Amino acid sequence: MNRSRLFVGIVVFVLLAASQTEAADWGAKKGPLATPWTEKVTPTNTWSEYPRPQMKRPDWQNLNGLWQYCVQAASDPEPDVWKGEILVPFCIESALSGVMQRVEPTEALWYRRNFTVPDGWRQQRVLLHFGAVDWSAEIWFNGTYAGGHRGGYDPFTIDVTELLAEDSNALVVKVVDPTDRGYQARGKQLLKPNGIWYTPVTGIWQTVWIESVPRTHIKSIQVTPDLDTSSVLVSVNASEEADVRVTVFDGETQVAEADGTTGKPMRISIKDAKRWSPTSPHLYDLTIELLRDGNMIDSVETYAGVRKIEMKPDAAGVNRLWLNGEVLFQFGPLDQGWWPDGLYTAPCDEALKFDVQAIKKLGFNMVRKHVKVEPQRWYYWCDVLGLLVWQDLPNGDALAKWNRNVDERAPGIRRSAVSAEHLREELSQLVVDFGNHPSIVVWVPFNEAWGQSETAEHVALIRRLDPTRPVNSASGGNFQGVGDILDMHSYPNPILPRRDKHQAAVCGEYGGLGLPVKDHTWVDEGNWGYRSFDSKEALQTAYLEKIDMLRGMIKEGLAAAIYTQITDVEIEVNGMFTYDRQILKFDEATVHDANTSLYDVK
After folding, report:
1. 112, 526, 561 from 32: Cα distances, Å
2. Which of 520, 518, 599 has its CA nearest to residue 561?
3. pTM assigned to the model
4. Are residues 338 and 472 in the same domain?
């Protein structure tokens, strides 16, 4: 079954029920920079793709588009008068929201919109989904409190079946976000942006949608490849116990089928399974059905890549990273995932795909997603196009002291009980929610001691949840002797960390070579890079010098390296592309050839 045909059936796709007058009145604000897609965004086309490509159903309704909004004191009740319209799913601080307004930690951002559901849905369950809301959300449905969620990066769902109205439904959302005045995971957001810290993001920043499901339905799935046995393991979590059938397709050809029950892992053997890799990102399509007395009562469609990632010694006893039984030097850029028009949210799916394709065209086989978690569709493009992902978990709370052997129990380093609980909850949810993507090959819970605490405990937690991937416990330190990777940062030149008998040596950040391009910078003056250049020629020469340095390090044991960075971000101008994605500062063919030459170093 071809992935383009995964979504079979009548798709109930309803955009925001805003009038033509309302749409005509809306307009994006003029920000410092625009991308090639900025002007293409409208209230009726914003993020129209199915948001969860690894668990598709036919009956869904998109709630993106124009909503009413209001910003007021956090202690105030729901507003009687709404200030205006905001384009969801763009955060209120972004130009594409149509508002471009800051929200203070003492304030709340309120949203409201009305919508109807098809009559046929009333005989089933109706689920309300939020891709991500930063940070703390409370939801009312037709005047009744429906639920809440804390966590700016993980998706969440509320069953609103019992709250449905006969005609129009009113959805109200309240969001508060303390940014750097709170303990929560926030990545690089700062109330006063500067240097490597960026504009805060508040509110809904991923797709909001509803879907119709049977009373007995699939709630989640876990798909784990097992290359050694040429199989995949599938676990199905459902609202009630039921039989399960999994069918595997390679294109239009059925290649495997297995039966089982919910709550119990099923092994589906695929004879001579084709391996997923950056050079051959082969994906199998899966149909998962719930059965009762042999009759299908629910089904979802997903996909799987059969691959194996591990850290182990090579023939010389040097720890390396292996993919599918072969040593592979992993090389890619740091990717912050920010956009000048949408901030946390790309202007469209095409823009997300562009970033992944651009990294591949430059000859990289990997990317480090830096202290941010993306929408599911970004990982989908990494899966489809074949890009390895090192996934950082967003950091928060206070910065730990910079000391490789810091005592994590010391005052000011150990998190408060509530902070630690929320970190564990969000980290756990992110590993579970995104663990099906074959492109993700390394988890990175901490970066440079940002919010780092109880490192050994968090590494153990990740390994319990996902024993199939290496863990890079602290990219750049603090080093606690746990995890599979010893990762040091060095600017501008790459560095080879000391060899370790238990960990692979990685340079998790280097480079930072800056070049501001006139008319393509966030600000006209005060731009910043780790090292600055005044021409593309000088910039590229310096980049290629660093590539030459890596060759010798690879021979000595370097397992991976990450160059800072793929795009400029706000006042940082050390990107290979400008922030607006309009200008590549390098010759693509030259960089591609230099980068790919690293994979042949022995």
Report:
1. 29, 14, 32
2. 599
3. 0.95
4. yes
